[in-house]
Every structure is written in structure tokens, then in C-alpha cells.
Amino acid sequence: MIRNYFKVAWRNLWKNELFSIINILGLGLSIPFALLSLMQVQSAYEYDNFHPYPDRTYRIISDVKDNVGGKIKYALSPQTVAEQLQQDYPAVEKATYVVRDFGWELNNRIKTLNVNTIYIEPAFFDVFGFKLASGTSPVEPNSLVLTEEKALAFFGTTEAVGQVLTHSDYGDLTVTGVLKPYKRNTHLRSDVMVSMATYKKFSKDTVLTSLKGFTYVLLKPNANKANLDVALTTVAAKLNMHAVAGAAKEQLAFRKQAITSIAPDFEDLRGNSYVDSMLDLSVNFGFALALLLLAGFNYVNLTLARSLSRAKEVGVRKVAGALRYQLVGQFICEAVLVAMLSLVLGYIVLKLMEQFSYVNWFTWDVDNHYVLWGTFIIFSIFIGVLAGFIPARILSRFQPAKVLKGTIAPSTFGRMGLRNSLVVIQFVASSCFIFVMATFYNQFRYMATDNDNFNRKHIYNVSVKGDYRLLQQELTANKNIEQIGLVSTPFGGTTAQATVKKNKQEQYAEASYYAADAGFINNMKLQFVAGNNLPASTGDSVSNFVVVNEQLLATLGLGTAQEAVGKTILLNNDREVMINGVVKNFCYYIYQFASNPLVLQYNPEQFHVLSIQTKTEVDDAVFKSEIAAVWKKYHPHEELAFSNYQKEMYDRYFPGRDMKFMGMFCLVVLIIALMGLLGIVTYHTEKRVKEIGIRKVMGASVPVIVKELSKSFVKLIIIAAGIGLPVGYAICYFFISLFAYSPGVNLLLLCTLFCCIFSIALITIAYKSIYAAIANPVKRLRTE
Amino acid sequence: MLLELKNIFKWVTVGGNRVFLLKDVNLQVQEGEFISIMGPSGSGKSTMLNVIGMLDGFDEGEYNFLHESVHKLKEKQRAQLYKQYIGFVFQQYHLIDELTVYENIETPLLYQDVKSSERKAMVADMLDRFNIVGKKDLFPAQLSGGQQQLVGIARALIAKPKLILADEPTGNLNSKQGEEIMDLFTQLNKEGVTIIQVTHSEKNAAYAGRTIHLLDGRIEQQVTN
Ligand SMILES: Nc1ncnc2c1ncn2[C@@H]1O[C@H](COP(=O)(O)OP(=O)(O)OP(=O)(O)O)[C@@H](O)[C@H]1O
Ligand SMILES: [Mg+2]
Known about the structure:
The complex is a heterodimer.
Chain A: H1 2-15, H2 17-45, E1 57-65, E2 71-74, H3 79-88, E3 92-107, E4 112-120, H4 124-127, E5 132-135, E6 143-147, H5 148-155, E7 164-167, E8 171-179, E9 192-195, H6 196-202, E10 214-219, H7 225-245, E11 251-258, H8 278-305, H9 307-319, H10 324-356, H11 369-395, H12 400-405, H13 416-449, E12 459-463, H14 469-476, E13 481-487, E14 496-501, E15 509-515, H15 518-524, E16 528-531, E17 545-549, H16 550-556, H17 561-564, E18 568-571, E19 575-583, E20 598-601, E21 609-614, H18 620-634, E22 642-644, H19 645-653, H20 656-687, H21 689-697, H22 702-736, H23 747-774, H24 777-783
Parallel strand pairs in A: 4-9, 6-8, 15-20, 17-19
Antiparallel strand pairs in A: 1-2, 1-10, 1-11, 3-4, 3-10, 5-8, 6-9, 7-8, 12-21, 12-22, 13-21, 14-15, 14-18, 16-19, 17-20, 18-19
Helix pairs in contact in A: 1-10, 2-8, 2-10, 2-11, 2-20, 8-11, 8-13, 8-20, 10-11, 13-19, 13-20, 13-22, 13-23, 14-18, 20-23, 21-24, 22-23
Chain B: E1 3-14, E2 17-29, E3 34-38, H1 45-52, E4 60-65, E5 68-69, H2 75-85, E6 86-89, H3 101-110, H4 116-129, H5 145-157, E7 163-167, H6 175-190, E8 194-198, H7 202-205, E9 210-215, E10 218-224
Parallel strand pairs in B: 3-8, 3-9, 6-7, 7-8
Antiparallel strand pairs in B: 1-2, 1-4, 4-5, 9-10
Helix pairs in contact in B: 3-4, 3-5
The complex binds adenosine-5'-triphosphate and magnesium ion (MG).
Magnesium ion binds near residues 45, 46 and 167 of chain B.
Protein name (chain B): ABC-type lipoprotein export system ATPase subunit
InterPro entries (chain B): AAA+_ATPase (IPR003593), ABC_transporter-like_ATP-bd (IPR003439), ABC_transporter-like_CS (IPR017871), MacB-like_ATP-bd (IPR017911), P-loop_NTPase (IPR027417)
GO molecular function (chain B): ATP binding; ATP hydrolysis activity; transmembrane transporter activity
């Protein structure tokens, strides 16, 4: 029976190539996105599956309850938990603590690289499946092990034991070992693993209960797992007692979490780095499903549109004794077949996507391919059943006595209303989607190329250490250089914090702090609303003048900008400084957030960057070599750290790969909608071939026929347009309002896109109609 | 008795008025009979045939088929009864275009859960009997009208029904092809199959043992040939 279903389905596919191509292509282009998110889900379940004792290794996680009944769940736990478990509980074979640190840069005298860092204790290698290829685990302060990849990047060889890397705050660190390559899907993902002794040496946090890192426990082989729960309760009770003495208001509780069930994260734990939360995975999958839904609409729509030709078959089969469920089964089989073929195409597309749009926040492979293919196939069957169900229900309902007599008019097949709304929904959805993507693109481009907040044009940054004055002086002689400013860190990166007070008695406020000189402020072209730039200075001492932004005035209540100039504020609780100028609020850090209070002060001790403005456009390479030549004189052993500010900011903010990926997604959405339209228009014109022939023979002109044919579709497209533009605008407005600094929703861009989408749709309709209208009527009638 | 229609009424409501398609139809059919239904176009011949074939319902009256009261049966039971005992032949053949001759004939067996090996034997028998073995892998579009109708009849017969209902089976055929079909019916009838056919041709009607004349949904006259 099933074989027969598939046989008929297969022949039907071949008989209606156009419709089959539309269906398979549509699903085939949208399935890869779903496959990709299925892969993310599977790989999340395959996280940390390479450790030696999965059945008795646990992570300890914390619930923090405050005194008003709130509860926050953390993946983190205090350091003392591991120590206590190890000491006092015989069921525990090993307990170890891991601290993750962010923002590490290591330097090997020539180059500086960002590294992903964790601090580990020696027991780490006993508990987890990480292996050393050479050397030993890091024990002493200022020692570390690193991945082969980073070893190659720093030293050009994996034989890196004994080499030294430098951290700007922690000094020299010795490489004691190199890690064997390990599976990327672990929440302990890191480039370097630094000895816990290093952490202890530099950490200033002495609060016993602070949640700094992750505790892991390896139980003894036959230990009762409930013992661990009891132990955790006891440890928590002790800690809480201790904390009460220290007047902390929060209560800690600990739970165990099997190492294999860390990912995916169903609880949205805080501090759970590198673990995908189930929520994120679901959102991802939701997008993919929405796309599939659009492609599924095509299937439903085209199948229903062709129902007239299928009606006879239904009638005959019913007369031959088919029960309704058997017919439903047949139509669903057809949809499943289409879905299967789409899966094949989709898999190929997925592989191409992997090749051509490497987006590194996706996992492109999983461990267990049987499970993967099982999921893919079940998923495709599910999609097929879903897409096939509505048409199957409608088609199988036909009464043989009526369809075989031919008394059922075409309009009663598959409800024009349903089909029309599917077309409208597709177009509204795809235009909204494209609008949102365009708006994001616009925002990213703004962030990447913006010169309104601060000037990036013709600016080059050079990192300096120690005494920069001679270097600065000599560079000033370069004919290309207009001006050299000095700053602690350029805008657009992390900011230093300071506290500001109106006066001693008042509450303090947090402010962002930049050490800068007048030249830097000039270079950045900040707009003054009152007062003046910092006084020009080359001295060695900290100046008492500051430039602040309007937000600082608002926060401290210093009145208008004019009033504020000349007033003093207390900086970092110890220094009175005078406001010399007030600049307009601008985005110097993250575009999402409104600006904080900002303080710019001449503070030579903290100058780390020369901000060089050139007179005109210069060639990067030439300019760099000029600077490098001067640099060499003063720093013969160090590489010049030099960047084109404009390019650097562009690279930071413009998510090229992600945009490419989203662009592909948009394109697929549009293609699906257009193909659906093409299919429906084709079907309707083909159905009217005979009518067109007769009309032409009777003397109707081509334009009249085209108008007649395209009328109803144009109406649909106009309805879709009427809904799509306002809805799309509203959605874009919502997204853009997530950014405190944005160019707003670009209405012109939306309108342009809008016109594009709808002209393509209109062209599709016109093309098909004209094609049908100019065909030779006699030929057409003869083949009827 | 194979089937019995008692005071059957069937109507549609058009603009508030009842339009009768069948009016007080009474009919008894014995097993092994060969009956022709005649009447002008629109007199309700197809309607009556569809009611007998359980493809269509009726509004009043009783219909007994082999001691089952059809009007009391549920949809599903009716379909079960129908697919066991009744075969249909149409004027427009109504073969499935996507299936070969072989597969078209096989279709009813699929819905009756006949085993694959048995199916093969039964279809082969039928092809043999109708002399279309050579055509078994062709699609309907590749056959002449007469050949298509042969396939249609073969399909109606494959499940060994007790009753064949044929709605103008020769309507689309030339007179020679029509004659062949009529000979076939006579042959089947001799083998014990009950046949009810609708026809416009006096000549074809004469093959049957009894002719029923319909006018405006009413049985006007029954003639035994
Ligand atoms: N659903 C319906 N609504 C209204 N009238 C109907 C309906 N179905 C059938 N009729 C009418 O019932 C009458 C009988 O139709 P039927 O198809 O049985 O005629 P027929 O005798 O088979 O004619 P022909 O020889 O042309 O095939 C016709 O007048 C037809 O218009
Ligand atoms: Mg008729």
C-alpha cells in the first residue's frame, strides 16, 4: 500500500515538474537553517562528553536567596566549597575549582593575542578529559599551559615548554605544558589554563562567599550520590552561618549537576559561559521553523491549487473502495516524499553554507551522525506530514458522485480565501523580515562607519609604554601628521571607571574616565556646548581641569552647561577638579546604552596611546613604515602596535559574516515567497489557457487579456503591501529603539526595498500573464 | 434478492423549493439479473445509479442490500459493504492517469488488503481474460477509448463484485467497440454477475433482461425483454 502511495507520488512529481521544483527548492532552501539549529541542539547535548568519569563527575551550582524571597541561580560557587568537600567528605575522591577570566591579552614581545583563559588546580587533569601533549600541569604562580593552536600562533611551534608570555598586569608567565587538541564543545573551552596559584597571588577578593568560579567534584566509584547532597547542605549551612556574622543578607544553597547535563542550560544560570541556553536554542529554532512554515505555505497552496486535477483521482479511488484515511495517507506520503527530496537538497545547501559562510558561532558538526541523521529524517517526515495534512484533509473530502460528474466548480476547491491569505502572509512576512534585516544592517553600518559621535577619520593609534615624549616629539616632525593626541584608551573600547561627587557631603556617582590631552579631544572633534578644551599641557603632573559631558551635569545636578563651567567636582573622592568645558553627550562605548557621565582629564601617567591625526588620506603601509622607523629608535626590541582607527572600528562593529548569513536567510525568504507566487500564477493562467484562446479568437487584445489575468494577483500584492509596510516599520522601530544611539529607521531604505520586493512580484505576475496572452490561440485550442 | 429500493425520494432545495431528483422509486433486483435504465437526459438515471451504488445518499425511503439496511448504516460500514460487492464503470472511463493499466486494475485490491502474491495472480487473470496483457505497462493516455473502457471494466471486476453498475459505458465509444463491451457484459451476466447499466441506445438496452424507463425521477415503466 505505502509502496503504491510512493509510486503515485513519485510519478506525480515528475508530471508536474514546475510545482515539484518550486516545492522542493522552497523546502530545500529553508530546511538547512532548521538542520543547522537541530545540529546546535544536538551538539549542546554532546557537550562535555569526553571526560573520563561522566557518571560520577559533578559541577556544584549555587542558588542565592535574598531576604525578600528572590532567588538567583548561578553556575558559579565559592572557592571554599571545593576545599571543604575535599577535606571533610570521604565520598569525594577529588574536588577542584576553576575560575574563568575574561579579556586576557598575552604578549610574546612581538605580538599580542587575545586568549580565552581559565585558572585551574592540579587536580583538573585528573577530573576532566583534557590531556597534555607535552610538559606538566601548571602549579607554580605565573605558570600556564596552552593549546597547540596558540603555541603555534605565539612561537611557530608546538614545542613551547619553557617559553615565556607576558601579561600587562601579571607579568611574565612560563609555559609548563602544551595541551592536546580537545573537542571544542566544552564549557571549559580555553586557550590557556593558568595555575590557580597565579589567581590566588593577584586576587584581592577575600570574601568567603563570593561566587568566583566553578566547583567540580569527582565522587569515589561506589560512593552514594546522596552523600554529596547532604555534604552540600552542610557546607552551605556553615557558610551561611559565617556570612550572618559578616552581616551579609543573602543565603546560599548548593546543588549538584552531572557533568553531562551542564548543556543545554534549561535554568538560565548566571555566569554559565560557553553553555547554550535552551531559550537561545529555541529562539534559533523558531526562526528556522518560521522559514519552513513559509515554504510549507507554498506546498499547501500549490497542492490545493492543483486540487481540481487531483479531484478525479480522489473520486476514482473512492469508487475503487478507498476509505478517507487511506487517501489522507496517500497525500501525506506525497508531502513526505517532497520533504525527503528537500532534505537531500537541504543537506547539500547546508554543506555549501558551511563552505561559503563560515559563521563561527555555529557548530557545523556533531559527534553522533546516526542520531543526527535520525533527527533529520524524523524532522523531514514531520515537516512533510505537517505540510501534507491540510491539503490531504481537503482533497480527501471530495464526494466521488460529484467530482466524477464534474459538478464541482473550481472555486470550491481548496478555498480561494485560504490560498489568498497564504500568499498575503508570505509576502508580509518576507517583507517584514527583510525590513528588519535591512534596519539591522543600517545600524551596524552606522556603528561601523559613524563619525558623528567621535571622529575616526584620518586617525591612527599607536600603543606606547613608558616614556613616549621623545617619540611624540620626533613624530610631530612628520609632514603628514596634523596633530598628536594622548589618551589612556581610544573611544569605542572598554572604559576606566571613576567616581564623581558634587561635594564631600553628596552621594557619589559612577563615571567613565579617560586620561586625555587637548590634542586628543581635538582629534575626536568633540562638540563643546560650553567652556573650552583642556588647557594645552605637556607637564608630568595631573591637571586640575576636566572636560565632562552633559550627562555628568545631569547626574550631579550641576545646572546648565554654562553654569557648570568653572564649578568644581570631587573626583575619585580625593581630588577637586574644575570643569573647564562641557561636551555634548556622545557614544564613546556601547551603542545600546545611553551615555554615562564622562570625565576627560590630563593625566600623563595613564597615557597609553598616541592618537595621531594625519593631514590628508595616507597610505597605511607607507605611513606605518615611517612611524615604525621612528619607533625602532626608541623601542628596538618591541614591535610597533599600530592601527588605522577607522578600519579597526569598522572591523569591530561590522559583523560581516553574520550579515552575510542573515542576508542569505532574507534571500531565501524572498525566493520562497516569489516561487509561491509564480506557482499560483502559473497554475491559474494554465487553467485558463482555453478561455484565453477563445477570447483571442473573438478579438481580445493582449493588454486586455494581461489585465484580466493579473487583476486578482495584483490586488493580493497590493493588500500585502498595505499590511507589510506599516507592520514592518513598527517592528523595525521596536528593534532600533533597543539602541540608544542609532540613525533611526531609514524610511527611504524601507521604501526602496519595499518597491523592489513588490516590483519583483509584479514582474512575476506580468511575465506569466503576458506569456500566456501572446501565445498563439489556435495552437492552444488544438491541444485542448 | 440482491437489493431492494422502497419508496425512495431524493431532492434538493433550490430557492426554498424542493426539486425532486427521485420520486417514489421502487425497485427489486434479483441476483444474476441484467437491467438497463433508460430515459431522457436529466431524468435521474445517473442519480439512481449512484444511490444504488451508495455513492450518493437519499432523503426518504428504504434501501436494503443483501439483508443490510443501507439507510441505517454508518458511512464507514457502507463503504465496507460497497467495496466488497459493487463495481463501477463510467462513461468517461475515469482511469488514474498516473497509473499503468496494471496498476489501475490493481487499485481496488489495494484497498481490500489483498496479499501481494494473490493480487498478482488476480490481475494477471484479468489481463488475460480481456486480452490486454501486452498493454499492461502502458498509461491510460496511450490507449484507445475502447481499450480504456476495457480496463475500466476490468478494474470494476477485479474484486469479484456481485453487482456491476455501468453509467453509459459505451457512450464514448463507436458502435463496434460498444458491441464488444455489450458482449462482455452478457458473458459476465451468464457467469452470475448482476449488471445494471444506464444507456441511451435501444440496441444496447436490448442486451438486458429488463429495461426500466425513468422520467422526471420517477419509474415510468418496466419492460421485460
Ligand atoms: N446537486 C443538484 N442540484 C440540483 N439539481 C441536480 C443536482 N444533481 C442533479 N440534479 C438534477 O437532477 C436531474 C437528474 O440528473 P442526472 O444526472 O441523474 O440525469 P441523467 O438522467 O443521468 O441525465 P444524462 O442522460 O444527461 O446523464 C437533472 O435535471 C439535474 O439537473
Ligand atoms: Mg447521466
